[in-house]
Amino acid sequence: MSGKQRHVGVAERRGRLALRQRLAGAARAAGPEDVAASLVALHGTDPATVYLAVGARLAEPGKTVTEVERALYEDRTLVRMHGMRHTVFVFPTELAAVVHASTGLAIAAKARAGLLKDIVTGSGGRLTPEWLAEVETSALAALARRGQATVNELTEDEPRLREQFTYGAGKSYESPQSVSSRLMRVLGVEGRVVRGRPLGSWTSTQFRWAVAPPHPELPVGEAQSELLRRWLTACGPATEADLKWWTGWRVTEVRRALAAVGAVAVSLDGGVTGYVAEGDAEPVAGPAEPWAALLPGLDPTAMGWQDRDWFLAPSLRGSLFDGSGNVGPTVWWDGRVVGGWAQRADGEIVWRLLDAAGVGREAEAAISAEAARLAGWVGATRVTPRFRTPLERELVAGVGS
């Protein structure tokens, strides 16, 4: 961008977030496919996050569970697969090839090399790469015959999957590992298998596996450019540091992709340079009305940027994040995080303000309405975040309420 960079202040960034992340009332979506397309990716490490993130953004959330299940397991318009930073996400199926080529190939190569090294050394040479290749071919054929299967079901067809080896022999973390658990994870990272229906409800962490549908092999640079372009459209402006963190790429890859898509540099508060997608540099008006949202732990909006100071005060992090940097359930008012929420054992949705500046009666009424809206579609299901945070634990226990 030549000449002086346009400045994008916090108010505009929050307005863009409200509209493009489908959080403002008028911007809410009709179905899970719309939500996933708008956000690019839904965090899938905690299965409940996918449903809660979608439900928070639907105009009519009553059928959230059935609609997400339809998209994932019947129409296959959404797919759960490994993506950025070796993390499980739910993507629009049309992005599977882009995600695999842009983020998965390098991770997959390391995962495969690590598995081969570990089974050989951890079995004293009893298990070999050639042996693993035979087992792998047999397991994939069995999975194709079954359509979907648990690991236990696959071991009935291919008993060699039960073989074990020692991981980290002689180290403090030495432990036995099964071939089945490691192999399925590696095949998932390689994009050869995907997670199918869970064994339990939509909050279950145990999944069946299925052979991944075929997709074209894309050049890495082309795939990285496409992923970055989509992400900037959803989340721009963002800094190089934000992009490097979200994608897990090297900074040279980020810069190459920024140049390839013609990203436009803008200035952000603090004298920092950010980037927006080509053709997206003009001012964007925010939503006409203020809005409230209750977003789940690991929500893609709260986890979308490395630098979150423009929507989340640093003083709130100790209450809303766990020790590994995973965000818990958050309460939002008009573009910023103002507190957190939890569901108690009796099903009640409870919330607490941590940053009450500018949060008056209108805001509290809107937040209460969102809590009721959430309770209405979640129904009898009880949701406990996979990564517990201090405030969430306190709210569940009734501390300070």
Task: Give a brief rundown of this model.
With 401 residues, the chain is α+β, with helices and mostly antiparallel strands.
Question: What profile does the largest beta sheet have?
Answer: 4 strands, antiparallel
Provide the gyration radius in Å.
22 Å
Alpha-beta classification: alpha+beta
Q: Got a strand count?
A: 13
Shape: globular
Number of helical regions: 14
The topology string of helices and strands comes to HHEHHEEHHHEEHEEHHHEEEHEEEHH
Helix content: 40-55%
Low-pLDDT stretches are none
Measured between the Cα atoms of the first and last residue, the distance is: 52 Å
State the strand order across the main sheet. Answer: 10-11-12-13
Strand content: 15-25%
Mean pLDDT: 94
Commentary on this structure:
The protein is of the alpha+beta class and 401 residues long. It is built from 14 helices and 13 strands. A four-stranded antiparallel beta sheet has the order 10-11-12-13. A hairpin with a 7-residue loop joins strand 4 (164-167) and strand 5 (175-178). The longest helix is centred in the first third of the chain and has 27 residues, at 96-122. It is globular. The mean pLDDT is 94.
